[in-house]
Amino acid sequence: MTPSENVRPISEQVLSDDWGTLTKYEIEYRRRSGEWQRQTREAYDRGNGATCLLHNPKTDCVLLTRQFRLPVFLNGGSETVIEAPAGLLEGANPAERMRAELIEETGFKVDALTHLFDVYMSPGSVTEYLAFFKGTYTLEDRAGDGGGVMDEGEDIEVMHVPLSRAFQMIEEGEIRDAKTVILLQHLMIKRLQT
Known about the structure:
Blueprint: E1 7-17, E2 21-30, E3 36-45, E4 49-56, E5 61-68, H1 70-74, E6 80-83, E7 86-88, H2 94-106, E8 113-120, E9 129-136, E10 157-162, H3 163-171, H4 178-193
Parallel strand pairs: 4-9
Antiparallel strand pairs: 1-2, 2-3, 4-5, 4-7, 5-6, 5-10, 8-9
Helix pairs in contact: 3-4
């Protein structure tokens, strides 16, 4: 950790370094009053990622996926989660990585993606930010079956969901993934502005 004007590192201890890195940090933080306060925090670093909402203007459908997510299941949620395609950058350019994820997860090849914004998804404990993209697709853009990478444990169902139904699915609690809600609400806001 690099010190800053308001943060002095004291110690750090790696607690786990399997899929990502969980580190315990002891720091001194300068409060707004100018007083220094000692704090202990844990942060999980699994790298940054990208996500994308694809919309078909002819059918007014969005391309979503459904897949098993262990943390959701462990927290009492359903076995599967409906979400926008996403993936870790692993050192790649966000747009390039997103195009590859779209083919892997959905089977659709889309070259033209628009970067929307970058968001820290859980800044209190996770270092990851996601680059958010949007794009359009047609059924002719299908380049493969999708479904994910079996060696990575992925078993992904591809869903073409009417946009009006996707909005209902948020209200009814069927879509509970934050990145997907953000992308759908962004599309909704843009529609209201036109």
